[in-house]
Design brief:
ten-stranded antiparallel β-sheet, mainly beta, rod-shaped, about 220 residues
Length: about 220
C-alpha cells in the first residue's frame, strides 16, 4: 500500500495527530475587533449626563376666546399648556468582556424625571379665562380667576444586550447584538382652578406604563 500527497508552495502541512500543537496556523473566521480578554473577564463602566426635553400634546388646561353667550363677538383666543423645558438626566451602565470567543454583555439604565408647570391669571381685558377640564359641579367655559397646571414624568429604562465586535474586512467591523429592553413610566397632571363664582377645584390625573420586549441590532 502506498500513499501520496501533493502540496503547492503556500500550503503548510500539519502532521496527523498534531493539530492541537498548530492552532496558530489558522486565523479566526471573524477575528475580534476588541477589546480582547484572555483567560478572564474584563469589566467596564459607562456614565452619561443627558439634557432632554419631554413634551406631550393635548395638555391644555385653560383657554381664552370662549363666550357663554351665543352669538357674542369674541377675539382670537389662546391655549395654555404646561411650559415644557429642558431637564437633566442620567445614564449609566456596566459591561463585561468575556474571553470565550470575545463576546461581551452590557447593562444600561436611563433615568429622567422632568417637572413642568404654568400658571395663568385673568388679566381683566374682557376675554374670559376658561377651564378645559369639565367637572361634575361646573359646566365647561366657566370664567376663571386663575388656573395652574403641573405635569411630571418619571421615566426609567433598562437595556440588556449580548454582542460580539468583530472584523468583516481589514477596515470594517460590526457588532451585532440581541437582548431586552424594559421600562416603567409614570405621568402626573395636576390642575388647580380658581373660579370667580364658586371657589376652587382641583383635578389630578395619573398614568402608569410598564413594558418589556426583545431588541436586536448591529
Amino acid at each position: 500500500m502506498c500513499k501520496c500527497s501533493f502540496a503547492d508552495s503556500d500550503t503548510i502541512l500539519i502532521p496527523e495527530g498534531k493539530l492541537t500543537s498548530h492552532t496558530t496556523v489558522f486565523g479566526d473566521i471573524t477575528p475580534s475587533a476588541g477589546p480582547r480578554v484572555i483567560d478572564g473577564c474584563g469589566i467596564f463602566l459607562t456614565g452619561d449626563y443627558i439634557y432632554w426635553t419631554a413634551r406631550e400634546d393635548n395638555l391644555t388646561f385653560a383657554t381664552t376666546g370662549m363666550q357663554n353667550t351665543a352669538g357674542a363677538p369674541t377675539k382670537q383666543g389662546r391655549k395654555y399648556p404646561p411650559r415644557f423645558k429642558y431637564d437633566s438626566g442620567l445614564k449609566f451602565g456596566i459591561g463585561f468582556s468575556f474571553g470565550h470567543d470575545k463576546w461581551d454583555m452590557y447593562i444600561d439604565y436611563t433615568w429622567f424625571n422632568p417637572h413642568h408647570s404654568h400658571k395663568k391669571v385673568y388679566e381683566g381685558d374682557g376675554e374670559p379665562l376658561t377651564n378645559t377640564i369639565p367637572f361634575a359641579l361646573e359646566t365647561p367655559f366657566v370664567p376663571l380667576y386663575s388656573a395652574q397646571a403641573s405635569w411630571s414624568l418619571n421615566f426609567n429604562v433598562f437595556d440588556w444586550e449580548l454582542g460580539r465586535n468583530f472584523y468583516v474586512s481589514k477596515f470594517l467591523s460590526l457588532r451585532p447584538f440581541f437582548g431586552f429592553k424594559g421600562t416603567w413610566q409614570k405621568q402626573t397632571m395636576q390642575v388647580n382652578y380658581d373660579f370667580k363664582s364658586s371657589g376652587g377645584l382641583r383635578s389630578e390625573n395619573k398614568n402608569s406604563f410598564y413594558g418589556v420586549g426583545p431588541r436586536a441590532g448591529i
